[in-house]
């Protein structure tokens, strides 16, 4: 018969396993270029301390050339995701709703990472009704271009202000309301 302590230990372990999310078990996960558990934390830089964000360009999921350059002057929201990532699937409806709410001031882009085949990623886009383009970045090369607030978890969401500077970052899942509020606040900043 299983004792009460064993049941409590098993319950504690069950709670810890989902917390690992989509992070790696890399011992250097806390390093700037490593991945960490997406705990939902939010970071925002003061306007005067922001650095120029990289202009992303590369192949999209559909194989066509894709670039963030055409979104200059708008707030750019970059969501890092993978079709294999359970928190990404959970977060997708919130992102779709936030994109609708902020469509007048923001342009969304995705960075699909660690999917070695485009088919599962394309199926993810169809299943969740993502309306924005996603870069296909299986090796994470685009992610390494962010020195300010690097996306250290999957999912991560970066917000680039209208002047093209990295302004904010969410590590882990975001909610519709929170993301829409942050985008609206950043959109109202002086250019």
Automatic annotation (TrEMBL):
Localization of this protein: Cell envelope
Annotated GO biological process: cytochrome complex assembly
Residues making up the signal peptide according to the UniProt record: 1-19
InterPro entries named among the record's database cross-references: Redoxin, TAT_signal, Thioredoxin-like_sf, Thioredoxin_CS, Thioredoxin_domain, Thioredoxin_ResA/DsbE_sf
GO cellular component: cell envelope
Gene Ontology molecular-function annotations: oxidoreductase activity
Main location, first listed in the record: other
UniProt domain Thioredoxin: residue ranges: 47-188
Gene3D superfamilies: Glutaredoxin
Swiss-Prot/TrEMBL keywords: Cytochrome c-type biogenesis, Disulfide bond, Redox-active center, Signal, Signal-anchor, Transmembrane
Superkingdom of origin: Bacteria
Protein name listed in UniProt: Thiol-disulfide oxidoreductase ResA
Organism this protein belongs to: Acidipropionibacterium virtanenii
Classification of source organism: Bacteria, Bacillati, Actinomycetota, Actinomycetes, Propionibacteriales
């Amino acid at each position: 018969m299983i004792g009460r302590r064993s049941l409590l230990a098993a319950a504690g372990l069950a709670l810890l396993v989902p917390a690992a999310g989509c992070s790696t078990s890399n011992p250097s996960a806390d390093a700037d270029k490593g991945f960490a558990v997406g705990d939902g934390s939010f970071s925002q830089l003061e306007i005067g301390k922001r650095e120029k964000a990289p202009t992303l360009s590369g192949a999209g999921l559909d194989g066509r050339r894709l670039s963030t350059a055409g979104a200059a002057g708008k707030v750019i929201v970059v969501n890092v995701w993978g079709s294999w990532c359970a928190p990404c699937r959970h977060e997708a409806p919130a992102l779709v709703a936030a994109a609708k709410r902020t469509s007048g001031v923001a342009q969304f882009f995705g960075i699909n990472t660690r999917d070695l085949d485009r088919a599962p990623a394309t199926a993810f886009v169809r299943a969740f009704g993502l309306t924005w383009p996603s870069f296909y970045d299986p090796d994470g090369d685009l992610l390494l271009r962010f020195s300010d607030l690097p996306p250290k978890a999957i999912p991560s969401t970066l917000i680039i202000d209208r002047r093209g500077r990295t302004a904010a970052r969410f590590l882990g899942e975001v909610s519709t309301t929170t993301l829409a509020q942050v985008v609206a606040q950043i959109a109202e900043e002086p250019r």
